[in-house]
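Re: that chain you flagged

S.,

Sorry for the slow reply, it's been a week of failed gels. I finally had a moment to sit down with the sequence you sent. For the record, here it is as I used it:
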Amino acid sequence: MYRRWRDSKGKDKEYENIIRKQVSGGRAEAEKDGVVIPTTLEEYCIKTKVRAPEAPVDMTDFYVDDYDLDDDDDNLELSGDDYDDADDSGNGES
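Prediction finished late last night. Pasting the structure tokens below so you have them in one place:
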């Protein structure tokens, strides 16, 4: 039917009538369900709001110096008991 309507350059009104009935039926169903059908291109297209650019973050606030070279623990000596001699091969055998 569409091809016949297209080839007749819109003179075949039967196809147009069927489409109009389908559209009006769809609108009635949408209204019954509380759905708003856009009727213009502006209503159909979603316009997004552009966010304002965020201020750059000062990373010096987050920087923590865990490797303080002036630490007082530099002169501590570890004894043999401080080391773990357990097998760490991962195969469960010792």
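What I noticed first: The mean pLDDT is 76.

Talk soon,
D.
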